[in-house]
Write a structure and sequence with these properties.
The chain has about 240 residues and is an alpha/beta fold. Helices cover about 25% and strands about 25% of the residues.
């Protein structure tokens, strides 16, 4: 969990104010970002203002520069809404914006991703980032995401994945939380996705483009925004 409290956050942001790194989500710049991590702490990755991580900033830049997310009339379904985005998306008058989660008290609709209470073809844009690695039956979850996405719609379905692993790894016999955290990245992850993740999305019907958006940016921009260089965005359409 991100443990910087909302009371302390403005003080930390003020103390780290500078010109070296910029968070594109709020446009504020800092001399450095904060460290973050579970088993492996990553330095200089957590933006003090929005509490965004590398993947959040990559996602934001792609939305802003490559989609009509902030301009078109769009029905959006957002799973496990990230704090960096929630209030900003709610303020967008062009969006019909619905959040959902099984347990979160801030979600609009409490729902199981494997059994969604929404009609077929209900949403033009689905955001489901770093959720599927928690779901035992991820095939069923993917099928539900495909079902509720409208024809012509887009779903961005980020997960942590190992680019050196061809095949996704899972082992339910590993029950010790520390051991699971060491192997899967977090104790509550149920698999380590490999590069076959993109093919699995295709197997349920999605058209999938693995977008390396950092390849369109300069090294200077990648460093300025503290982005995950080479990370592939799963851009899914129907």
């Amino acid at each position: 969990m991100i443990r910087v409290s909302y009371l302390v956050r403005p003080l930390v942001a003020f103390f780290l104010k500078g010109n070296t790194y910029t968070d594109p989500i709020d446009g504020k710049s800092y001399r450095k970002f904060l460290p973050y991590g579970y088993e492996r702490v990553r330095e200089n990755v957590l933006a003090p203002g929005t509490l965004s991580l590398e993947r959040h900033r990559l996602f934001w830049l792609y939305l802003t520069n490559e989609t009509g997310f902030f301009t078109k009339q769009i029905r959006v379904l957002h799973f496990a809404p990230e704090q960096a985005f929630l209030k900003r998306f709610r303020k967008q008058k062009n969006l019909t914006y619905t959040t959902t989660d099984l347990n979160s008290p801030i979600a609009d609709v409490k729902a199981d991703i494997c059994d969604l209470p929404f009609k077929d073809n209900s949403y033009d844009f689905i955001i489901c980032n770093h959720v599927l690695e928690h779901i035992p039956d991820d095939t069923k979850a993917m099928q539900e995401l495909y079902r509720v996405l409208a024809p012509g719609g887009i779903a961005i379905l980020q997960v942590p994945y190992d680019r050196n692993r061809k095949v996704t790894f899972t082992d339910d016999s590993i029950t010790d939380q520390k051991e699971r955290a060491a192997i899967f990245g977090q104790y509550d992850h149920v698999r380590v996705y490999g590069m076959d993740y993109f093919d699995k999305l295709r197997s349920v019907g999605f058209k999938v483009e693995a977008v390396d958006y950092t390849a369109t940016l300069s090294d200077k921009e990648v460093n300025k925004y503290r982005l995950p260089k080479g990370e592939l965005l799963p851009l899914c359409s129907k």
